[in-house]
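User: Assemble these into one structure.

Assistant: Restating your components, then the assembled model:
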Amino acid sequence: MAVLSQLIANGLIAGSIYALMAAGFSMMFSIQRFMNIAHGATYVVGAFSAYLFAKIIGWPFWIAFPIAIAVATLLGILINHIVFEPLQKEKDKNLALLLASFGMFLLIESIILMIFGADVKSFGLPVERGMDILGAIITPLQLIIIITAPVVFIGIWLFLKKTLVGKALRATSDNTVIAATMGINIRAMTFISTGLGSALAGLAGILVALEQNLEHSMGMSAILKGLTAAIVGGIGNVPAAILGGYLIGLAENLGIWYLPSGYKDAISFVILIIFLLFRPQGFFGMKKREEVAE
Amino acid sequence: MKHAATILVLAILLVGCTATGNNVNEQDVITIGVISSFSGEMAVQGEHLEQGVTLAYEQLDRTALTHSYRLLFEDDAYKSDKTAAAYRKLHDIDGASAIIGSDSRSGNIVAPIAETDAILFCSVASDPAVVKGRKYVFKHWTTPEAEVASYLAVVEQQGWDRVIVLESVHPGVEAISDMIEKAARERGILLERHRFQSGDTDFRGTLAKLKNQDFDAFALFLMPNHLQTAGKQILEFGFEQPRTTIEMYDFIDDVSLFEGEWYIAPADPTGRFVASFTERYGEAPESVAPNGYDCLNLLVKAFEEGGTDPDDAMTVIRQLKDYQGAVGTLHYSGSLIEGGSIESPALKKMIVNGKRVLVE
């Protein structure tokens, strides 16, 4: 029973991070309509900015972390403005955007490598023995991760449901053309969705850096898991992507109850393949009606 | 059109002449290439190798040498495709006559190509597969056999009979784990192995399953990005079993997380080498630095005494005996079937006050 509790706790910790990444992916996809791989770069920049401000410069966490999230947010907006916006006008834009986002990811990862070096870094927080919660050993930091993610998600849900900007975002996500005819500024919506998505990635990066460690190559695994979670939940639908994150986190961790630990990644990708084959719209997504030819 | 054709022919001739000229000049210079991870997850190791090789290169007594030597470095970022590309560049473009490599992963990629090209390859590797059946490849690292024997001697001394191995999926690690598992079984010690892919930094699932089990120690055969996280998560789970390893504590900068733990390390550098290294870099040599130093000196010795023919140069290496290297007195050991290595002893070390201290 204790093993089950622990595996569920582990699933929730991993799921929280995947859900943050997936929510960001989905939020941007719902407006921009392409897989923004550079999202992984904002995750890495969030983590390394926090490391720079808190560990190297020595600012207190409560100042360093919001600024690090702001840096990740600005980076996401800047990439969108400089690279993706011009490409959106291209005829064959989908492939160009995908390649450009991958290129941006590699470029930023290389810049991080150049600045911070390749060795594994850590915030050097004192290691403390975890608390026993329902048979699972959880450290205070892990508890913060488990609590932070849902709090952020409730905030996003309230923003999307209750505010005018949130409603405009949802309208744009539903149908860009109709939203534009209703007077919604699509460019502003892209700006907001990119900023919010990047902030979520920055936050995820900081949480992982605090809980584990930092290395310049940490973004790729976050992209893969975030994207898997977003697709499994239902890409373009933020709440579905969040649930997809938790689903993948729990499936991976419960899956290794009987399987060797090395199969953890394989579990999530098997789930991804099953979904792509049999339910491409995702667990919570609805099948899109076929577009009527002009 | 006629002019264009004439210009093209002249250009080709000019390039051809320049290329021939270069070859004539380069015949006097022996190029030694170094392939290592100067970026990526094992960049620390690459840096150590570069320091050792560079120091040896700087200290070459050029007045006593019959050949000139050129040293080139290629970064493989710890990625297999880049290792092969780095080798191809050093051999095909730069005309390298010998290669120095820093670990079993790159060793297993470079060794078969170097063997086909008859290029001398000194690999700072532990995996016996790197040298097995190869004429032009030798390794310079404390042999896994010596490290495994020392490790199991300590395990037996402690009276342990069940050890949990957390290991990275990596050829060098797997070679050590396979060897230690077999040797442990013969001694009645149970080794339970758990493997982790390089991107996986979450060990909590495995630790959860181990929580209520009875075992004596952890053996952490993990790469640096895994090692720190695993070491931390073991403590967070409240395990009190020792966290032992072979070599791995040598590859991380900050060992404070492993205070009080023992491990088996490859041979230590000699006092003389430590002194000259410290004078040059302002810090003590670590991990593969002395082996890189030895590799360069051994290759130069091979070319100086055996000439540029790879068979003759390798004969010099195979006859090596009582050579005073950076990790002590070196001997060549091996056969054409099993391959050869430059032997050096395994040591037991401990982490004391954040430093690696020799125990025995």
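The two ends of chain A are 59 Å apart (CA to CA).
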